[in-house]
Every structure is written in C-alpha cells, then in structure tokens.
Amino acid sequence: MGKRRAERELLRSLSKKQKKHLREFGEEHPFYDNCFIGCYCCCCLHLCFSFQSEDSDKSSEESDSETEVEQVSGYHKLLATLKTSPESESEEDESESEEAEESEAEMDSKGSQETGEAEGGEEDKNDVSEEEEATDTAEQMLSQEQADGTDISCGPRHGVIEEFTDVKHESEFSLETNFMEEESGDCNADRRDSNPFKQHMDKELEEKEIEKMSTLPKTSSQSQWPRLGQLIFSSTLEKHKTLKADKEVDVKQLHLHKPLESTWPKVNKQILSVVDKPIDSSFTPLQRELFCIMNSYQDLFYPERNALTNGEEIRHTYCLHALNHVLKANAQVLSNNAKRRDRKPGTDTDDHRDQGLTRPKVLMIVPFRECALRIVHIIISLLEVNDKKKIDVSNKKRFKGEFGSDPEEKPPNLKRPEDYEAVFAGNIDDHFRIGVAILQKSMRLYAPFYSSDIIIASPLGIRTVIGAEGEKKRDFDFLSSIEILIIDQADIYLMQNWEHVLHLMKHINLLPLDSHGVDFSRVRMLNLNNWSKYYRQTLLFSALQNPQINSIFNKHCFNYVGQVAVRNMPLTGSISHVVVQLPHVFRRLEADSVTSVIDARFQFFIDKVLPEYRDAIMSHTLIFVPSYFDYVRLRNYFKKEDLNFTHICEYTKKAAVCRARRFFLKGEKQFLLFTERFHFYKRYTIKGIRNLIFYELPTYSHFYSEICNMLKATDNGVDATWTCTALYSKYDAQKLAAVVGIDRTAQMLQSKKNVHLFVTGEN
C-alpha cells in the first residue's frame, strides 16, 4: 500500500514535459528526468529494464511476493500507473504479486492480455477494465520505443530492445481498408497501355523465359548518350530494345502520378538554377537521361556519382521515380478496393491481383542518417502541391530530432577537402532504419516494416534486422516483395562493411516464412511463383568502378527488362593532380588468379620491395595499405622482423595516432603503416614523408594524388630526395586506369617490362 502511494507521489512530481516524454517515448527524459531506474543505451542496443543496488538490505521477514515486486523496475511501475487516476484512493488495491506477474508478462510478450484475464477473473468488471486499460497503455508505449523500423519484439531476458514504431495510425494507413479519393488518383493514366508501371508489373513471364534468364548469358550492345556517355545495354531476352536519349522531355508524357506532375518542377527548381542554360524546364541533362532509364524499369549502374557536383541531382531523380512507383501501386490497390466493394456476389476477383506478399515496395540503402533526412524532405516536398495544401506527416518532430544534426556538435574547424565536407555533412550515424507509409494525402514515418511502402536504411541497420543463421530473433520476410532497390553511394560501403551489402542481396526477394495476414486472392502471380527477383529494378550509384560493386550488378540483378551500365573510361587519371616533383615507379607483380594475388603481393613486397627500404637512409617511409587484413598481416610481419615502425588504422585511438605521427615526423620510427579507411574517415595530413609505398592502389583514385601531395607538407622537404613506389597486378586494371589513365594502363598491362616510371612536377 505504501509503495503504491510512493509511485503515485512520484508520478505527481513529474512535470508536464516529463509526463509527455514518458507517455510518448517510454523512456526517461534526456535532460531533466532522474526518477527512472530504466536506462536506454543506444550504443550496445540493450534495454536494462531493472537493476538494484547490491548493498540494499533485505529483511528476512519480507514475503516472496514483495521480493518479486522489488525486481520490477520503476519504469514498468510508472507505465502501469500512467492512466490510473492518482485521486482514486478508495479503489480496491491489487496484490503486489499480481502487479509483478503482470509486469513480467508485459515484458515477455505483447499478448499479455491473456495473463491479465486469467489473473483478474475474481475481480469485478471495473477492476478488470482498468487493468486491461493499464496493460494496453504499457503495451502501446513499449511498442513506441522502437527507434527506427521494426525489430521483432522480445523481453529483457533476450537483451534486445523494441524499437519505436508508430502503431496509432495503423488503420488510417492500411491499404486494405481505404478507398481511392477521386481527386487524388490518376486512374486514367493507369489504364493507358503505354504506362511504364503497368507494362512492367503486368507482364506475365513464361517458364521458358525464366529458365532462359537463369541459364543463358546476356547479350549486350553499346550506345553513346550526350550526358551519360558510353552505355552498355544487356539482357537475356531477345525482345529488349536499346533506349534512345530524349533531347527534350514533356512532364505530361512521363506518366507521373498526381501530384508529381505539378510539384516536380518546383522541387527541382533549386537544382536547375545551378545548371548553366538548362534546355529543359523540369530536368537537368543528367536527370533527364537517368530518369529515361529509370522509367523504363531497367536496372541501372551509374559509377560517376559525386557528392560535390551531381549527388543531389541523382537523389532528387530516384526519389521522383520511387515515389511515382509507390503512388501508382497504392492507387491501383485502392481503386480495386472500391471495385471489390461494389462487385456483385459470385463475380470473379482474379482480375484484382495487385499486391506482393508483403507491402514494402521500395528499399533505399544509404550510408548516413543525413541522407535519409534529405530523402524524406524531398518526398514530402513532392507530395505537397502548395503551401496551402500541406500533407499530414506523422512523427515528423521525432524524425527531425533523431535524423537531424545539432549545430553545436559540429567538429572544430579543421582543414578538410571539399569532397570530405560534402560526404560527411550532417548526422553521420550509420546504424538506422525507418519505414515510410504513404497513402493519398498523408505520410507516416516510423511505420512498422510490414505496413510501410518505402524502407530507408543503412547496410548495418538492415543487417541487424535480417540477422544471421542460428539466431532466434531474425526477420527478412519484409524484403520478399521489393520492386525497386536503390543502393546510393555504394563506394562508401566498401569503407564501412561490404559484407552487410552482400548479406542483404542474399535475403532479398525470397519467399516469406509467414503469411503476415496477406490476402492471397490479391497477390500477383509473379510473387506466388517466387519470380519477384526477375521484376525487381535495381538502381546502383557509386563514385567509382570497383569489382565488388560490379559483382552486385552482374550476379545479383535479374531484371527481365535488362540492364544499363555507364562505362566511361578515365583518360588522364589522378596522377595528373600531383603537384610535387616526384618519380613514380609502378611495379607489376604476377599472379595466377584473383584469390592468389593477395599472397603474391605480400611475397613480392617482402622479397623485392622491402629490402630496398631497410637501410637507415630510406627513413620516413609511409606504406599505404587499402585493406585492413593486409595491414594486420604487414604489422605482424614487421613485429616479427623487429623493424622500427609505427602504425595507424581506423581503430587506432586518438592518443596513439598523435604519438605515431610525432614519432614518424621526428624520424624516431622508420616506417609508418597507414590504412586507406583511416584516411577516408579522418583526412589527416601526415608530415615527414620522404618515401611512399602504395602496397596496393587506393580504392579512391584521388587518394593517390592526396597522399603524394603530402610530401610538400614537410618543412625541410625541398632538400630531401623523394620516392614513390606502387604495386599493381593485371587484376587492378580499373584502379590503375583511374590513377594513370586508360591509355597508359593498356600499355602497362601488355608490356613485357614489369617496371614503369612516371615523373610529375610543377613544370
């Protein structure tokens, strides 16, 4: 009885802001609230529901039920009392043991109403209704703790948190229970035979065509476009046609769904203002050609994305295409809902197959929260016709708080290249996922994945949901009916963890393990036949050509319409941007296969290259290592050989980095092992370099010139004799072309000589 009063006093002592925060987020207020025992830790993704001080004395006279209550956190007690009136002192108090059992049931399962009914059978109806009301409130608030998408719910004993999802607007955004509003749809456009969406999704493939795509190689053809350059069109089916670039585009002929026809020119106005003398009033030349390919529903690989120049152009274009697809798909479902409602009994409903096995249609993979923030802002702008007709966006405030950036958290003004500032702008957290539901004139952020149309996530964020084999709590059914997959800034994932991308590609468009309440009479036959991957369009954007990115496009994309890849070869290469006078020695190593090149490079380095630098005269030698695994191998070898060296990688602590830089600058350490990922994330200028060794050519070609230009940062560098050595093999053709140009690459790979010399300088 006394503890119940204490809880009520605690609840009364909360301010309005604290109560609102508790009710909405189910966690303590980050600034003012110290009354909770529950704590939320974002870094380790665990929710500690209860903990007690070890030195708290327990009387031997306490009953078992009282002991149980002590184990229930103040967090859950507050949840249970939120909707209970503190003034109702005369109501009959429940036993504390029942409170404990009820709280444990709430933590273990969402279906705790059964427990409440079983335990409350002897109470009167009023007590039962109040108990259920409190239970429902706690359940609702627990479900709202889901931060970004939809994790499978589980209790604290599993050590996994429930993320915040919006469950309040479920019926409002349900496709099954809503109908088309006359003014919001573009039904006539959907009936046109030339509508790309209808053409692509209504195409019925035959077994022979599926077998053909699975077994036969693709045929390809080339085409030259004004802005994109050289395109490679490839397809297994003979019926594919090579697209032609449109010089001018009429927005009305693009089959855009309302309101995109009118909103796109306004939204894209800022992008157009940067372009000199735009020919089109709606698209830049790059956007026009990209959208032409996207709207044909062919796969696209564009490896010339640049965060400084064309990044926003590309983002706006794929947002337009994705939103156009979602609006058309949802309009088709809502229109068929009305037809089914008005149909006569006994009428065949097989014509109304308009859905996948799960609702999510578009998956956008982006590296940082800032990218997701910009995408959502673009989508909102595209849906708002004018300032008077604002769309209703649920959970917008929370989204801005979690995905926006605090200006006060901006790092000190350090000199960084412009491309670094562009890539790492805003909130650069790389662990997130969020579901977005769009229905006519409303939009819901933090929708559960199975109620979402668009999922925006980072590779790490989606990987933690998919899980791995053997894990009890894992889910990838929501990926079963993805119709458009957009992977933006794919090159950054090489610096994060490429395995997450491969893991995603292995789990997309698989048959779901559960039905998830789907109406099978509405599911398209292509989904029932497990042919979803042949209809999925993949849009892949990267800043560079890379074998690993190419493999995603070549081995994991099966679009029956075909593929388009931009293949422009660099003519000069980044070596032309080296401003210091420096001899560049490129040494070719021989390897029999891609798998053996790793060992061959290591052996070549310790046998042929390292002995030349062991002499004390060759001090101040920086060894640039792109791969972390090669870095570890070299570090272990240097320790074994007792060489005078220091090392810096992406995991090195700040103090150790400062020490290593100081030792290297003063010459106390002869060698410095230096990883590409550290340079990617930090971009520090390393002083004291006199000799450079590129153990392997960098992933980003402009890093080659950046590292070489660091030689001029040394004060006494004018009197020093500088050298630069780079190792390469025939399997590094793309990296080599990006550094020295395509013509020199052809000569260096075909030449009988294994050593090639280039000299750069100011003149």
TrEMBL record:
UniProt region (Disordered), positions on chain: 55-140, 335-355
Major place of residence: nucleus
Keyword Zinc (UniProt): no
Domain UTP25 C-terminal span(s) in chain numbering: 574-758
Gene Ontology biological process terms, A to Z: maturation of SSU-rRNA from tricistronic rRNA transcript (SSU-rRNA, 5.8S rRNA, LSU-rRNA)
Keywords linked to the UniProt accession: Developmental protein, Nucleus, Phosphoprotein
Compositional bias of kind Basic and acidic residues: 344-355
One cellular component term from this protein's GO annotations in UniProt: small-subunit processome
GO molecular function, one term: rRNA binding
Xref: SUPFAM superfamilies: P-loop containing nucleoside triphosphate hydrolases
Listed Acidic residues bias regions: 88-106, 116-136
InterPro entries found in the cross-reference section: P-loop_NTPase, UTP25, UTP25_C, UTP25_NTPase-like
Subcellular location: Nucleus, Nucleolus
Domain UTP25 NTP hydrolase-like: from-to ranges: 297-564
Family indicated by similarity: Belongs to the UTP25 family.
Reported function: Component of the ribosomal small subunit processome for the biogenesis of ribosomes, functions in pre-ribosomal RNA (pre-rRNA) processing. Essential for embryonic development in part through the regulation of p53 pathway. Controls the expansion growth of digestive organs and liver. Also involved in the sympathetic neuronal development. Mediates, with CAPN3, the proteasome-independent degradation of p53/TP53.
Oligomer and partners: Interacts with CAPN3; the interaction is required for CAPN3 translocation to the nucleolus.
Protein name: U3 small nucleolar RNA-associated protein 25 homolog
Source species: Anthoscopus minutus (Southern penduline-tit)
Lineage start: Eukaryota, Metazoa, Chordata, Craniata, Vertebrata
